[in-house]
Design goal:
The protein has helices at residues 19-36, 42-49, 54-81, 86-102, 109-136, 143-171, 176-186, 188-201, 224-236, 242-251, 256-284, 287-306, 310-338, 344-373, 376-396. It has 412 residues and is mainly alpha-helical. The protein has a single domain, classed as Up-down Bundle (Growth Hormone, Chain: A).
Length: 412
C-alpha cells in the first residue's frame, strides 16, 4: 500500500498527519460555526416565529435528513469513480452555506423545509468525499487519530457557533423574529471562510492519482460492514433530532440565550474528548468505544425522560457530549477499516444513507410522541433503542474479532 505524504508540521498529536486532515478540519470548523449558530434557534424559530407544531418540526428535520442522506449513495459512488474528490467537497460546502443564509428570508415552515433540505443535500454531496479524502490521506495506524483531529476541530466550531448566536441574540437590539433572522444572515460569513480554506489548502494526496477506480457494479461491502450497518440503523431509529433535546432544555426553564450556552458546553466537552478517544481507538479498537457510546446515550436519554429538571437536562447534555465524542470518529474509522480503499466514499455514502433512512421515522415518531404522549416519551424510546444497539454490537461484531474483520488492503 502506498503511504500518503503526511507533510507533518509538528510532533505529538499531529505527527504523521497529512495537511489535508488539518485543512478539512479547519473547513469543518468554520462550517460548524455557521451551522451550529442555527441549531439552537431553528426549533424556536419554527415553533415560535413560524407558529408550526412540534410534529411539523419533526417532519422538517426527518424529511431533510432522510431525503438528503439518500443522495449520499450516489455522491459517494461518483466520488469513487471520479479521479478527484475535492470538487464534491467544494460544491457541498457551497450549497449548504447558501441555504443557511437563505433562511433569513423564510416566512413559512414549508420554506424552512426546502432550505433545510438544500442544506442537507450540500452535506450529502460533501461528506462521503471528504471522509474518503481524510482516509486516503492517512496511514492505517493513525486512522482513529486523524478522524479524532477532524472531529475535534469540527466540534470546536460547533462550540463557537452557539456562543456567536447567544451574543447576537443578547446584544443586538430587535424582537425575537428579527434576532433569529439576523443570526441566519450572519451564518454566511464563516461559511464563506470554509470555502476559501478548501480552495487554497486542500490537495489530493500523491497516491490519489494511482487510486484504482471503483468497481463497475455498485454494491454494499459484505461481512462485518453489513453487520455494522444493522447495528447503526437500530441505534439511529431512536436517535431523533437534537432539536428535541433543545426543546426539552427550554421546557426545563432555560431561556433561548441560555439554551445556546448549554449547547456550547456540550460542544466544548465533545471537542475536548474527540481526539483522545480517537487516539485510544487506534490502540484498543473501535468497538469497545462504540459499545460505551451506546450505553452512555441510553443513560442520557433515560435522564431526559425521567429527570428533566434544569440540572438534569444539563447533566444529560454533558453525557451526550461524551457519547458524541465516543461514536463519531470511531464510526468513521470503522468504516475505513471494513471497506476496500477504492470503495471508501461509496461505503461512507451507504452508511450515511442507511442512517438517514432511520432518522426519518425517528424524528417523525419523536414529534408525534411528544405531542400525543408527552415530552418524556421520545427520550424513553431513544434510550431503549440505544440499549438494543449495544446488545446487537456485542452479538454481531464481537470485540474479539475486531482485527480479523478488517479489510486486508493489497500491498503496492
Amino acid at each position: 500500500m502506498a503511504t500518503p505524504d503526511p507533510k507533518p508540521g509538528a510532533g505529538g498529536w499531529f505527527a504523521g498527519i497529512h495537511r489535508n486532515v488539518v485543512a478539512l478540519g479547519a473547513a469543518s470548523l468554520f462550517t460548524d460555526i455557521s451551522s451550529e449558530m442555527l441549531v439552537p434557534i431553528i426549533p424556536l424559530f419554527v415553533t415560535a416565529t413560524l407558529h408550526a407544531s412540534v410534529a411539523s418540526l419533526g417532519v422538517i428535520e426527518g424529511v431533510a435528513e432522510c431525503a438528503a442522506s439518500l443522495l449520499r449513495l450516489f455522491s459517494g459512488r461518483l466520488a469513487d469513480r471520479s479521479a478527484r474528490r475535492k470538487p464534491f467537497v467544494l460544491l457541498g460546502y457551497g450549497l449548504s452555506g447558501a441555504a443557511k443564509a437563505g433562511m433569513a428570508l423564510v416566512t413559512g415552515w414549508s420554506g424552512m423545509l426546502g432550505l433545510r433540505f438544500a442544506d442537507r443535500v450540500g452535506k450529502a454531496i460533501r461528506s462521503p468525499a471528504r471522509d474518503a479524502l481524510i482516509a486516503d490521506s492517512t496511514a492505517d495506524a493513525h486512522m482513529g487519530r486523524a478522524f479524532g483531529i477532524h472531529r475535534a476541530m469540527d466540534t470546536l466550531g460547533a462550540a463557537i457557533g452557539p456562543l456567536v448566536a447567544w451574543w447576537l441574540l443578547a446584544h443586538w437590539p430587535g424582537d425575537g423574529a428579527e434576532g433569529y433572522r439576523r443570526v441566519f444572515a450572519f451564518s454566511a460569513i464563516p461559511a464563506t471562510l470554509a470555502l476559501l480554506v478548501i480552495v487554497f489548502f486542500v490537495r489530493a494526496p500523491r497516491e490519489g492519482a494511482e487510486r484504482a477506480t471503483a468497481p463497475p457494479r455498485w454494491s454494499i461491502p459484505h461481512g462485518a460492514f453489513r453487520r455494522f450497518l444493522a447495528v447503526d440503523v437500530a441505534f439511529q431509529l431512536g436517535n431523533s433530532s437534537m432539536a428535541f433535546v433543545l426543546l426539552r432544555t427550554q421546557a426545563a426553564g432555560w431561556s433561548a440565550g441560555q439554551v445556546s450556552l448549554v449547547y456550547l458546553a456540550y460542544n466544548l466537552v465533545y471537542a475536548l474528548l474527540a481526539l483522545p478517544f480517537g487516539r485510544l481507538s487506534d490502540r484498543i479498537g473501535r468497538r469497545p468505544l462504540l459499545l460505551a457510546a451506546y450505553a452512555v446515550y441510553a443513560v442520557a436519554y433515560a435522564a431526559l425522560a425521567l429527570h428533566a429538571t434544569r440540572a438534569g437536562v444539563v447533566a444529560a447534555f454533558l453525557l451526550l457530549a461524551v457519547h458524541s465524542a465516543l461514536i463519531e470518529g470511531q464510526a468513521k474509522s470503522l468504516v475505513a477499516d471494513l471497506a476496500p480503499r477504492e470503495a471508501r466514499a461509496s461505503a461512507y455514502g451507504v452508511q450515511a444513507a442507511f442512517s438517514g433512512l432511520a432518522l426519518l421515522p425517528a424524528s417523525i415518531a419523536a414529534g408525534l410522541l411528544w405531542d400525543l404522549a408527552g415530552p418524556a416519551a421520545p427520550f424513553a424510546l431513544g434510550a431503549a433503542l440505544a440499549a438494543l444497539a449495544a446488545l446487537l454490537l456485542v452479538l454481531l461484531l464481537p470485540l474479539s474479532r475486531e482485527r480479523s474483520d478488517r479489510h486486508v488492503r493489497p500491498q503496492r
